[in-house]
């Protein structure tokens, strides 16, 4: 429901307690039959009620009360009030001077009275809103600079900030490194095999091996008595200078470190059945070049 500015103002004054008895009775009658108007009055009471929390009760001293009573004339007995005599009625006065004075028409003051009441209400609302704004500014300032002076319910909640300090992980300890020179009967290394002791990854670098004939491939093998004497294929060595593999992860460290690494010439793509089909042309064993960090 839409309410007029006068109805909104009188609801705010009711919440402030500045209405007279007749106006309060009028507001309470409207509240009894209009739930929306009741809600509007309660909304004003909620917004203006915070002013009471900012002001504490103060009991005046007895001597101050005596001075107030003396100032208004209640401390001592007053003389009886004597009213002045009323002037004679206008017709009588006119007759006394021998002339008739016409009565002036009564002025219509309803608009003036209505405007005055509305202005008074809006002045009350404006004063209340100004006081509310000042109280909020004061409360915010006290929350920032003197929160201990506020009541417990108005104090700002303490903020806890969790700062996570991350300690950098220590660098991994260097792992052992192994190298094998794979060379043939003519001498000189054909391939260099490098094995990482921690990851068991290996890299084959082509050094002096001659190009393999067309339709053939070099294949790397691991030979160890701990494998039953049967060579295990580690894959075909590619045509580029470096070939990296991870197939050693399936073998124990003892087998990797003590085995013999051999290279045979197989058909293109490697042995079809997992067994070498020619004698090794290059071979070598691993030696430790970088010890593991302890």
Explain what you see.
With 294 residues, the protein is an alpha+beta fold. It has two domains: 93 residues, no CATH class; 114 residues, Immunoglobulin-like (Sandwich), CATH 2.60.40. Helix content is 35%, strand content 18%. It has eight helices and nine strands. The strands form two sheets. The protein has a five-stranded antiparallel sheet, with no helix packed on it. Strands 5-4-7-8 form a four-stranded antiparallel sheet. Helix 1 packs across helix 7. It is rod-shaped and about 150 Å long. 13% of the residues are buried. About 2% of the residues have low confidence.
Describe the structure concisely:
Helices cover 35% and strands 18% of the residues. The chain contains 8 helices and 9 strands.
What are its keywords?
294 residues, alpha+beta, Immunoglobulin-like, 2 domains, 4-stranded antiparallel sheet, 8 helices, 35% helix, rod-shaped
What's the helix and strand layout?
Elements: H1 5-16, H2 21-33, H3 35-48, H4 50-54, H5 62-71, H6 90-97, H7 110-145, E1 177-183, E2 189-196, E3 202-206, E4 216-223, E5 232-237, E6 242-245, H8 253-258, E7 260-267, E8 282-285, E9 287-290
Antiparallel strand pairs: 1-2, 1-9, 2-3, 3-6, 4-5, 4-7, 7-8
